[in-house]
Amino acid sequence: MRLIAGLTTTERQTGLFLAGLVTLMGAALGIAGRNDLLGYHGLLIVVFGAVIMIALLRNLDAPEPEESRLSEYYDDPIRFGIVLTMVWAVFAMFIGVWVSALLAWPELTFDAAWASFGRLRPVHTTGVIFGFGGNALIATSLHVVQRTSRARLPDQVSPWFVLLGYNLFCLLAVTGYFLGITQSKEYAEPEWYADIWLVIIWVTYFVLYIRTLARRKEPHIYVANWYFMAFILVVAVLHIINNLAVPVSFGSAKAYSAFSGVQDAMTQWWYGHNAVAFFLTAGFLGMMYYYLPKRAERPIYSYRLSIISFWGITFLYLWAGSHHLHYTALPHWVQTLGMTFSIVLLVPSWASAGNALLTLNGAWHKVRDDATLRFMMVAAVFYGLTTFEGSFLAIRAVNSLSHYTDWTVGHVHAGALGWVAMITFGALYTLTPSLWKRERMYSNSLVEVHFWCAVIGTFIYVFAMWNSGIIQGLMWRTYNDSGTLTYSFIESLVAMHPYYIARTVGGLFFLTGAVVGTYNILMTIRHEPRPLRERAETLGADQPLVPGE
Amino acid sequence: MPEIHRKLERTAIGFALAIIAVSSIGGLVEIAPLFTIDETVEKVEDMRVYTPLELAGRNIYMREGCYACHSQMIRTLRDEVERYGPYSLAVESQYDHPMLWGSKRTGPDLARVGGKYSDEWHVAHLADPRAVVPESKMPAYAWLQRNALRTHDLSAHLVALRRVGVPYSDEMVENAARDAFGQAFPDGAMAEGVAERYGDDTNIRAFDGDPGRLTEMDALVAYLQILGQLTDAPHQKEAGEQLVQAEEAE
Ligand code: HEM
Fold first, then answer.
1. Contact A261 B105 (CB under 8 A)
2. HSE value, Cβ hemisphere, 13 Å, CA-based, for A205
């Protein structure tokens, strides 16, 4: 295996030791939890660890890598991460389409517990956010930090530990829901042992990031890294606090949350909203701040705007979570604070979106011709639209209509499909040829096909959910002349049916695009390298794009 | 400002600390007081804890992801109060670790569903929703009737809950598994203890219609039937008063 051949013998031994440790840990959990669902997860961890151990053992005495590697960037884990990103994308979006179809045709569960809506839905959300989004963030952040610091990653083991360990977490999460293991907190469903494991991974990730930054040959830390740092740090804090829980026993998968009722609700949505803010926003802004100027070959429009929007987002978002709890048993003053800060949040959000779009000024001909850059342009537009809609939905009066309806789901996917997924595809299409030293993607027409599938899919999805959400909200609150409610709940449910079908069609478009993209990326990897025009990527060849330097 | 910021950009650790400091303010101001301000959760006398059977049912509710389609939080809005009943109070989820307020209503709110239907209705509905409500989009949960309920570690569950603040007594902990059986076998010897420990109003019935076997269906239906019934507090205010308050809040 080429990937292992890139490691020194000591590094292979360290890897073997770590994989052995993971295997033992899995065995301990498996034995303690043999009478519980936990046993399956013990087994899964053992298999995961063992596969890595076997791969390492079989290549333990491959020749040492060449010394010259130290003068280049370390990109193997990033390449692997890109492939994982696409695998998760296809898997999780397929589940998304299935979940969507279940709402139109509820019998598609075949009387199997694992395939029922309530278990599949978190498989979808975790799969897209953590599987697809998380792998994309880890891969691109490790690429960006090396290029903008002009420094190689400090060692070759910890990036692999982070990437593989993180995917073990995702596997535990997703298989857990199929099995019926969940703590039911939205976007924080994995149970205590998976949560502890993620803390270990995350701390390693942060240390790796800081160590790379410490080796930088640039005096200043580039904007993209600010966002990646905020992403790593704040997600760590959110994750640890929201997941505080007391396990039933060491041999049980189940734990009880430390918080209850109203305090739990506030903690959960402080977490939930900022998972959106720092996972799905800050991290991807980091991506945007590097790959968009890179692809457009223009410096970021304004350094000042970058500063304002960065600190605005970092400060304001953490106040906004309570807008998920309007008119509930949460004290009124917290609801009001949440609403106010959510509205102010529009300022730094639009500063970022504007900064991105103004960066494209003078490069519009490229946007027209290059689907990759167009992906990123559309992403910036959707980022602007979604944050506007978000501030709007946070207004109490609007929220009284939209909350609990499909409008929220439409809003989520305007951000998820339009922003998160599009910026990721744009970044991956920029990154893939350069990492595999190809002149361009295998097929530019397929990038074009993917782009249009993604745009059409997003529009169908979002319009369907706007319609259904608003109709639903209105039906629930319509009174007739005699002062009683006009519609039964079932009548509102029946009215949703056509929109659920439309959403499934939109999802199929989007999924098709992702499949095409995966094929294109794999073919780019497999194709014989057409040597890149003298742009060898040795340390320092790649200038960061900070204006005014 | 850019000059100061340029300095900050020269230190990775400094930048990281600044991020932590700036980002923690919001949470500290909004969350910490909820644990200390007394009015956050109403004080009521009659609030009771879940019986072991109801708790097991609640865990099945979480496992199956019912919360993905059902909320348990009636907002202070007139139409919600008229559709579902008195709006939810904080105290009602005081012992819910974690809360199941939910965020999406593909199906109706369930905060007050306890006592709304018979046990037979729930069993038939869960086994095949479309046999009861033809337009329904709810999944069928026929396996609940087939699966025997796990009870052997229920004591450990109560202990864990006690650690996070739910007032289970030693006696409740010791008898957890017995009480789970007792609550679903009204004529058996174990039934008496349940009423003694959890109150005379506790539902003691063969919830799934089959007193011979303790199933997951027993547990889930026992849980659904207690929703909104743990305390009388939400019903103390006159319906009219509720509506006025709801409108004021709007
Ligand atoms: C093929 C594309 C996709 C399809 C068909 C799809 C479909 C769905 C469906 C049917 C739901 C459940 C909605 C409900 O309960 O009514 C959902 C929820 C969700 N999806 Fe997707 N999805 C797709 C892509 C994505 C992507 C790429 C992301 C994120 C990066 C994402 C994030 C979410 C989130 C966060 C939720 C929960 C929404 C909420 O609770 O309000 N989805 N999706």
1. no
2. 28
Topology classification of domain B48-240: Cytochrome Bc1 Complex; Chain D, domain 2 (1.10.760)
Contact B65 A184 (CB under 8 A): yes
Q: Mean pLDDT in chain A?
A: 94
Q: Are A546 and A300 in contact (CB under 8 A)?
A: yes
pLDDT band at B35 (very low <50, low <70, confident <90, very high): confident
Q: Which residues of A touch B100 (CB under 8 A)?
A: 184
Question: Cβ(A73)–Cβ(A152) under 8 Å?
Answer: yes
Boundary-marking domain end, from A9, A34, A65 = A65
Q: Where are the domains of chain B?
A: 3-38, 48-240
State whether A149 and A30 are in the same domain.
Answer: no
Reported as a single tens digit per residue, the pLDDT across A308-366 is 999 999 999 999 999 999 999 999 999 999 999 999 999 999 999 999 999 999 889 99
Contact at CB, A490 and B160, closer than 8 angstroms: no
A505 lines ligand 1 (CB under 6 A): no
**Is ligand 1 within 6 A of the CB of residue A383?**
no
Query: How far apart, in Å, do the first and last CA atoms of chain A sit?
Result: 42
Position A191 scores a pLDDT of: 97
Q: Do residues A226 and A298 both lie within one domain?
A: yes
Nearest residue to A73 via CA among A15, A145, A137: A145
Cβ count within 10 A of residue A516: 19
A412 touches B: beta carbon within 8 Å = no
User: How many whole angstroms from A409 Cα to the centroid of ligand 1?
Assistant: 7
Instruction: Provide CB contacts within 8 A for A204, sequence distance 6+.
Output: A158, A161, A162, A165
Give the nearest partner residue to B26 out of A180, A186, A318, using CB atoms: A318
Q: Which domain holds residue A36?
A: 1-65
Q: What is the predicted pLDDT for the residue at A547?
A: 39
C-alpha closest to that of A75 among A9, A158, A143: A143
The answer on A128 and A29 residing in a single domain is no
Chain B contact for A32, CB < 8 A? no
| Residue A113 in contact with partner chain B when CB distance is under 8 A | yes
Summarised one tens digit per residue, pLDDT across range B94-125 is 999 999 999 999 999 999 999 999 999 999 99
CB within 8 Å: B31 and A255: no
Q: Are A33 and A85 found together in one domain? A: no
Q: Is residue A547 part of a domain?
A: no
- A88, A91, A100, A126, best to mutate for ligand 1 pocket (most atoms within 8 Å of CB): A100
With CB atoms and an 8 Å threshold, state whether A329 touches B59: no
Domain boundary among A21, A43, A65: A65
Whether A56 and A163 map to the same domain: the answer is no
Q: Could you say which of B25, B71, B133 has the minimum Cβ distance to residue A315?
A: B25
- Which residue's CA is the nearest one to ligand 1's atom 29? A416
What phi, psi does B148 have (nearest 5°)? -70, 145
Residue A545 belongs to some domain of the structure? no
| Cα–Cα distance for residue pair A267/A269, rounded to 1 Å | 6
- In eight-state DSSP terms, residue A254 is -
Q: Is residue A226 part of a domain?
A: yes
My answer on whether A349 and A238 are in the same domain is yes
Count of structural domains within chain A: 2
Q: How many interface pairs between A and B have CB atoms less than 8 angstroms apart? A: 260
The complex scores an ipTM of 0.93
Q: What is the CATH number of the domain that holds A344?
A: 1.20.210.10
Domain annotation covers residue A125: yes
Stated pTM of the model: 0.95
| pLDDT exceeds cutoff 50 at A546 | no
